[in-house]
Amino acid sequence: LQNGPLYVDRYQSLAWFAETANDENGRWEKVYAALDDKFWAIQNKAISELSVGDGTPSWIAEKLADLSRSHDKSDIRAAAVRKLGQYKDDVWADIFRESMQDPSWMVGAAGLTQLGKVDASEALKVASAYESEDNTSMMMSVMNLYSDYGGNDKDAYFRAKLVEVGGWQQYLVIQSYGDFLKRMEDETLVAAGSEVLANAAMESDIWWMSQVAQGVLRDIKSQYEGERDALADSGMVSSEKEKLDVAIEILDGLLDEISN
Asked: What is the spatial distance between Cα 256 and Cα 251, in angstroms, rounded to a whole number?
Protein backbone atom coordinates (compact mmCIF):
# COMPACT_ATOMS: atom_id res chain seq x y z
CA LEU A 1 0.00 0.00 0.00
CA GLN A 2 2.71 2.47 0.93
CA ASN A 3 5.37 1.33 -1.53
CA GLY A 4 3.31 0.51 -4.64
CA PRO A 5 4.70 2.49 -7.58
CA LEU A 6 1.35 2.79 -9.36
CA TYR A 7 -1.82 4.51 -8.21
CA VAL A 8 -3.96 1.47 -9.06
CA ASP A 9 -1.73 -0.81 -6.95
CA ARG A 10 -2.04 1.39 -3.90
CA TYR A 11 -5.78 1.95 -4.42
CA GLN A 12 -6.52 -1.77 -4.74
CA SER A 13 -4.37 -2.51 -1.70
CA LEU A 14 -6.22 0.12 0.33
CA ALA A 15 -9.58 -1.28 -0.80
CA TRP A 16 -8.51 -4.76 0.27
CA PHE A 17 -7.35 -3.64 3.72
CA ALA A 18 -10.51 -1.60 4.26
CA GLU A 19 -12.89 -4.39 3.24
CA THR A 20 -11.24 -7.68 4.25
CA ALA A 21 -8.40 -7.11 6.68
CA ASN A 22 -8.85 -6.89 10.44
CA ASP A 23 -7.28 -5.02 13.32
CA GLU A 24 -4.82 -7.84 14.01
CA ASN A 25 -3.08 -7.46 10.66
CA GLY A 26 -2.98 -3.69 10.80
CA ARG A 27 -6.13 -2.81 8.93
CA TRP A 28 -6.62 0.65 10.34
CA GLU A 29 -2.94 1.52 10.46
CA LYS A 30 -2.85 0.99 6.69
CA VAL A 31 -5.96 3.09 6.17
CA TYR A 32 -4.56 5.84 8.38
CA ALA A 33 -1.25 5.80 6.51
CA ALA A 34 -3.11 6.29 3.23
CA LEU A 35 -4.19 9.73 4.43
CA ASP A 36 -0.66 10.85 3.52
CA ASP A 37 -0.60 9.22 0.09
CA LYS A 38 0.82 11.39 -2.68
CA PHE A 39 -2.35 11.04 -4.80
CA TRP A 40 -5.53 12.75 -3.66
CA ALA A 41 -7.91 9.99 -4.85
CA ILE A 42 -6.30 7.51 -2.46
CA GLN A 43 -6.50 10.04 0.35
CA ASN A 44 -10.18 10.47 -0.49
CA LYS A 45 -10.72 6.70 -0.38
CA ALA A 46 -8.95 6.53 2.99
CA ILE A 47 -11.18 9.28 4.43
CA SER A 48 -14.31 7.49 3.21
CA GLU A 49 -13.19 4.25 4.84
CA LEU A 50 -12.37 5.77 8.23
CA SER A 51 -14.54 4.57 11.08
CA VAL A 52 -15.08 7.37 13.55
CA GLY A 53 -15.71 6.20 17.10
CA ASP A 54 -14.29 5.67 20.57
CA GLY A 55 -11.48 3.51 19.19
CA THR A 56 -10.33 6.03 16.61
CA PRO A 57 -6.88 7.46 17.48
CA SER A 58 -7.12 11.09 18.54
CA TRP A 59 -4.55 12.20 15.97
CA ILE A 60 -6.88 11.17 13.16
CA ALA A 61 -9.26 14.06 13.90
CA GLU A 62 -6.32 16.45 13.95
CA LYS A 63 -5.16 15.06 10.62
CA LEU A 64 -8.64 15.56 9.17
CA ALA A 65 -8.71 19.11 10.49
CA ASP A 66 -5.35 19.79 8.83
CA LEU A 67 -6.56 18.33 5.52
CA SER A 68 -9.73 20.45 5.68
CA ARG A 69 -7.64 23.59 5.98
CA SER A 70 -4.63 23.01 3.79
CA HIS A 71 -5.18 20.39 1.09
CA ASP A 72 -5.06 21.79 -2.43
CA LYS A 73 -8.00 19.66 -3.65
CA SER A 74 -11.47 20.87 -2.70
CA ASP A 75 -12.73 17.26 -2.80
CA ILE A 76 -10.36 16.35 0.04
CA ARG A 77 -11.11 19.47 2.07
CA ALA A 78 -14.84 18.77 1.81
CA ALA A 79 -14.44 15.06 2.58
CA ALA A 80 -12.36 15.85 5.66
CA VAL A 81 -14.99 18.34 6.91
CA ARG A 82 -17.78 15.80 6.41
CA LYS A 83 -15.82 13.11 8.24
CA LEU A 84 -15.12 15.48 11.15
CA GLY A 85 -18.85 16.06 11.33
CA GLN A 86 -19.33 12.38 12.17
CA TYR A 87 -17.73 13.06 15.55
CA LYS A 88 -20.74 15.29 16.34
CA ASP A 89 -18.51 17.23 18.69
CA ASP A 90 -18.71 21.02 18.92
CA VAL A 91 -14.95 21.14 19.46
CA TRP A 92 -14.75 21.14 15.64
CA ALA A 93 -17.28 23.95 15.19
CA ASP A 94 -14.53 26.46 14.35
CA ILE A 95 -13.31 24.18 11.56
CA PHE A 96 -16.84 24.14 10.14
CA ARG A 97 -17.06 27.93 10.38
CA GLU A 98 -13.69 28.31 8.65
CA SER A 99 -14.79 25.95 5.91
CA MET A 100 -17.70 28.25 5.06
CA GLN A 101 -15.12 30.85 4.01
CA ASP A 102 -13.48 28.39 1.60
CA PRO A 103 -13.46 29.51 -2.07
CA SER A 104 -15.04 26.16 -3.03
CA TRP A 105 -18.84 25.98 -2.74
CA MET A 106 -18.51 22.26 -2.04
CA VAL A 107 -16.33 22.87 1.02
CA GLY A 108 -18.47 25.77 2.23
CA ALA A 109 -21.61 23.68 1.93
CA ALA A 110 -19.96 20.83 3.83
CA GLY A 111 -19.02 23.24 6.62
CA LEU A 112 -22.56 24.59 6.89
CA THR A 113 -24.07 21.11 6.96
CA GLN A 114 -21.68 19.87 9.65
CA LEU A 115 -22.16 23.03 11.73
CA GLY A 116 -25.85 22.13 11.81
CA LYS A 117 -24.99 18.86 13.56
CA VAL A 118 -23.32 20.62 16.49
CA ASP A 119 -25.15 23.97 16.57
CA ALA A 120 -28.37 23.92 14.58
CA SER A 121 -29.43 27.36 15.79
CA GLU A 122 -26.28 29.04 14.51
CA ALA A 123 -26.36 27.07 11.26
CA LEU A 124 -29.93 28.17 10.56
CA LYS A 125 -28.94 31.82 11.02
CA VAL A 126 -25.96 31.41 8.71
CA ALA A 127 -28.03 29.54 6.12
CA SER A 128 -30.40 32.47 5.70
CA ALA A 129 -27.59 34.42 4.03
CA TYR A 130 -27.35 31.76 1.33
CA GLU A 131 -31.05 31.41 0.49
CA SER A 132 -30.66 33.10 -2.89
CA GLU A 133 -27.60 31.06 -3.85
CA ASP A 134 -28.17 28.82 -6.86
CA ASN A 135 -25.03 26.68 -6.48
CA THR A 136 -26.38 23.16 -6.08
CA SER A 137 -24.06 22.14 -3.22
CA MET A 138 -24.91 25.17 -1.10
CA MET A 139 -28.59 25.03 -2.03
CA MET A 140 -28.74 21.41 -0.86
CA SER A 141 -27.00 22.31 2.39
CA VAL A 142 -29.51 25.07 3.10
CA MET A 143 -32.47 22.86 2.16
CA ASN A 144 -31.25 19.96 4.31
CA LEU A 145 -30.80 22.27 7.29
CA TYR A 146 -34.30 23.67 6.84
CA SER A 147 -35.86 20.25 6.33
CA ASP A 148 -34.10 18.91 9.45
CA TYR A 149 -34.33 21.90 11.80
CA GLY A 150 -36.37 24.70 10.22
CA GLY A 151 -39.72 25.90 11.50
CA ASN A 152 -42.92 26.94 9.73
CA ASP A 153 -41.29 30.17 8.60
CA LYS A 154 -39.06 28.24 6.18
CA ASP A 155 -42.03 27.08 4.14
CA ALA A 156 -41.80 30.21 2.00
CA TYR A 157 -38.19 29.39 1.09
CA PHE A 158 -39.14 26.01 -0.39
CA ARG A 159 -42.08 27.48 -2.29
CA ALA A 160 -39.87 30.14 -3.81
CA LYS A 161 -37.21 27.60 -4.81
CA LEU A 162 -39.76 25.42 -6.58
CA VAL A 163 -40.51 28.37 -8.85
CA GLU A 164 -36.91 29.56 -9.28
CA VAL A 165 -35.24 26.30 -10.31
CA GLY A 166 -35.91 23.52 -12.78
CA GLY A 167 -34.65 20.13 -13.85
CA TRP A 168 -32.43 18.27 -11.40
CA GLN A 169 -32.49 21.11 -8.88
CA GLN A 170 -36.28 21.07 -8.82
CA TYR A 171 -36.16 17.34 -8.09
CA LEU A 172 -33.91 18.08 -5.10
CA VAL A 173 -36.27 20.80 -3.86
CA ILE A 174 -39.28 18.47 -4.08
CA GLN A 175 -37.49 15.84 -2.02
CA SER A 176 -36.29 18.29 0.63
CA TYR A 177 -39.63 20.11 0.79
CA GLY A 178 -41.31 16.75 1.37
CA ASP A 179 -38.92 16.02 4.27
CA PHE A 180 -39.68 19.47 5.67
CA LEU A 181 -43.45 18.98 5.43
CA LYS A 182 -43.25 15.60 7.19
CA ARG A 183 -41.80 17.37 10.23
CA MET A 184 -44.47 20.05 10.38
CA GLU A 185 -47.36 19.62 12.81
CA ASP A 186 -49.63 22.21 11.18
CA GLU A 187 -51.93 20.17 8.92
CA THR A 188 -53.09 23.31 7.12
CA LEU A 189 -49.52 24.23 6.19
CA VAL A 190 -48.79 20.66 5.09
CA ALA A 191 -51.94 20.51 2.96
CA ALA A 192 -51.10 23.80 1.27
CA GLY A 193 -47.50 22.72 0.75
CA SER A 194 -48.59 19.39 -0.69
CA GLU A 195 -50.74 21.22 -3.22
CA VAL A 196 -47.76 23.38 -4.18
CA LEU A 197 -45.68 20.23 -4.72
CA ALA A 198 -48.40 18.63 -6.83
CA ASN A 199 -48.80 21.72 -9.00
CA ALA A 200 -45.04 22.05 -9.52
CA ALA A 201 -44.86 18.44 -10.67
CA MET A 202 -47.81 18.75 -13.03
CA GLU A 203 -46.41 21.95 -14.55
CA SER A 204 -42.95 20.48 -15.09
CA ASP A 205 -41.83 19.53 -18.59
CA ILE A 206 -39.96 16.52 -17.15
CA TRP A 207 -42.20 13.46 -17.27
CA TRP A 208 -40.77 11.72 -14.21
CA MET A 209 -41.18 14.75 -11.95
CA SER A 210 -44.79 13.73 -11.28
CA GLN A 211 -43.56 10.34 -10.06
CA VAL A 212 -41.17 12.03 -7.67
CA ALA A 213 -43.94 14.24 -6.29
CA GLN A 214 -46.29 11.29 -5.93
CA GLY A 215 -43.67 9.42 -3.94
CA VAL A 216 -43.23 12.38 -1.59
CA LEU A 217 -46.99 12.81 -1.13
CA ARG A 218 -47.44 9.10 -0.48
CA ASP A 219 -44.78 9.30 2.23
CA ILE A 220 -46.62 12.17 3.92
CA LYS A 221 -49.90 10.29 3.61
CA SER A 222 -48.35 7.14 5.09
CA GLN A 223 -47.04 9.14 8.03
CA TYR A 224 -50.49 10.62 8.65
CA GLU A 225 -52.11 7.19 8.38
CA GLY A 226 -49.72 5.85 11.00
CA GLU A 227 -50.53 8.71 13.35
CA ARG A 228 -54.27 8.24 12.76
CA ASP A 229 -54.05 4.49 13.39
CA ALA A 230 -52.13 5.08 16.61
CA LEU A 231 -54.88 7.40 17.81
CA ALA A 232 -57.53 4.84 16.86
CA ASP A 233 -55.67 2.08 18.71
CA SER A 234 -55.58 4.23 21.83
CA GLY A 235 -59.37 4.31 21.86
CA MET A 236 -59.38 8.07 22.17
CA VAL A 237 -61.76 10.20 20.15
CA SER A 238 -60.03 13.44 19.34
CA SER A 239 -60.16 16.40 16.99
CA GLU A 240 -56.64 15.50 15.96
CA LYS A 241 -57.87 12.29 14.32
CA GLU A 242 -60.47 14.29 12.41
CA LYS A 243 -57.76 16.66 11.18
CA LEU A 244 -55.70 13.71 10.01
CA ASP A 245 -58.68 12.25 8.17
CA VAL A 246 -59.14 15.54 6.32
CA ALA A 247 -55.43 15.78 5.51
CA ILE A 248 -55.38 12.22 4.15
CA GLU A 249 -58.41 12.95 2.00
CA ILE A 250 -56.68 16.03 0.57
CA LEU A 251 -53.56 14.01 -0.21
CA ASP A 252 -55.63 11.32 -1.92
CA GLY A 253 -57.21 13.99 -4.09
CA LEU A 254 -53.84 15.44 -5.06
CA LEU A 255 -52.45 12.00 -5.88
CA ASP A 256 -55.44 11.29 -8.11
CA GLU A 257 -55.02 14.66 -9.80
CA ILE A 258 -51.36 14.03 -10.58
CA SER A 259 -52.10 10.53 -11.89
CA ASN A 260 -54.75 11.83 -14.25
From this structure: 9
| Orientation of helix 74-85 relative to helix 40-49, angle to 10° | 10
| Spatial separation of the C-alpha atoms in residues 212 and 191, rounded to whole Å | 17
Asked if 142 contacts 130 with a C-beta cutoff of 8 angstroms, the reply is yes
Element (H, E) at 7: helix 7-20
In the 8-state DSSP scheme, what is residue 180? H
Q: What is the pTM of this model?
A: 0.87
* Complete DSSP assignment for 22-69: -GGGTHHHHHHHGGG-SSHHHHHHHHHH---STTS-HHHHHHHHHHHH
Residue 71: what are its φ and ψ, rounded to 5°?
Answer: -70, 145
What's the CA gap between 232 and 226, in Å, rounded?
10
Compute the half-sphere exposure of residue 222: CA atoms within 13 Å on the CB side of its CA.
8
Summarize pLDDT for 201-229 with one digit per residue, the tens: 888 888 889 999 999 999 999 999 999 99
Number of H helices, E strands in the chain: 14, 0
Query: Which residues in the chain come in under a pLDDT of 70?
Result: 1-6, 19-27, 54, 236-237
